[in-house]
Hints:
MFS transporter, DHA1 family, chloramphenicol resistance protein, Growth Hormone, Chain: A, transmembrane transporter activity, single chain, globular, 75% helix, mainly alpha, 424 residues
Amino acid sequence: MTTTxxxxxxxxxxxxxxxxxxxxxxxxxxxxxFMIAGLLPDLTSDLEISVPQAGMLITAFAVGMAIGxxxxxxxxxxxxxxxxxxxxxxxxxxxxxxxxxxxxxPALMITRVISAVLYxxxxxxxxxxxxxxxxxxxxxxxxxxxxxxxxxxxxxxxPAGTWLGEHFGWRAAFLAVAVAxxxxxxxxxxxxxxxxxxxxxxxxxxxxITEEVQAFRRGRLWLALLTTAxxxxxxxxxxxxxxxxxxxxxxxxADRAPLYLLIFGVGAFVGTTLGGRVADRGPLAxxxxxxxxxxxxxxxxxxxxGSAVGVAIAxxxxxxxxxxxxxxxxxxxxxxxGSAPTLAAxxxxxxxxxxxAVGPALGGLAIAGGLGFRxxxxxxxAMLVAALxxxxxxxxxxxxxxxxxxxxELDPAATPAATAVCDG
Length: 424
């Protein structure tokens, strides 16, 4: 009698195609998140509003994401995740079509806030689906691909949206986002498999929520979320004021300033790609090194701020260092969330958007306080140092067992496939 050993499960060496499909969808939706900044002139003239009022459309989107992510995630817990992705994307494109017929500021504001809620839902569920499809070996790379969608949105989508706005009006940019999102819906329907297992048996909503909330009893999850918020706040405190820094301190002409922002976007794309490749080997080490490197790049930027060439190099290094952390930050949150990561992914989305809102506000306060256009970079350095301190505390905490767990915690570098840049 002979026995045949069962084959060992195949370990992925690269994320599956479906992850890239989700990254492309985030590119389409993320373009709308950021392109408003380039559409401000046309929006102000067409809707007869002030620049600060138009700018509030950006703030409202960030607030909508921060608040909407956990609320919508809880509301859709019993829905199949693929269905949630499709519904959120369809709602997003329909709201952009509605925007084509909006002729007043309050109505446009409403569409932006609801769009943000749907986008936050899509992002959080995409992260969960991507991590499940990728498995433990390449989970951080898969999550970096999603962040890479945002990087490409900054490099290609935002300039394209700005160009459309300048030549055909802001509604043309909204239409382009709707078309791109429609294409992503078709791709998701065809190419993204259903990853659900627990929804095959209908379980009480209360039980599902309890499982998701259990993860938040872990102190190390909160440390990971705080690191995310501080990091994101640091980056946006500095980045939001790069243009006035370049024009007023470096002496770059206004028409050349976008070239430096393009360098930032390219650096972000490269950083996300490289970071995603190494994050799976050690997410915490990736976080610590990336934070430290971004501090050094910030100081370099301040040191060479009088040189146009030096600033271009420093900005490229800054964004490369900063965005190399993206996959690791997300992977750590998923690892600590255990087998019920959906709400944790949503709160992580909120943490990013809290940083998006707080960082620029602090940078603006520094300028308003008379500290000059260099001060937002220093605000960013302070927040990066704080993030590094929190990550250090997290490293100490992770060396000892967590006795407050009511459910097993999963290693961020080894989250099972049953549990949230581009790759060459």
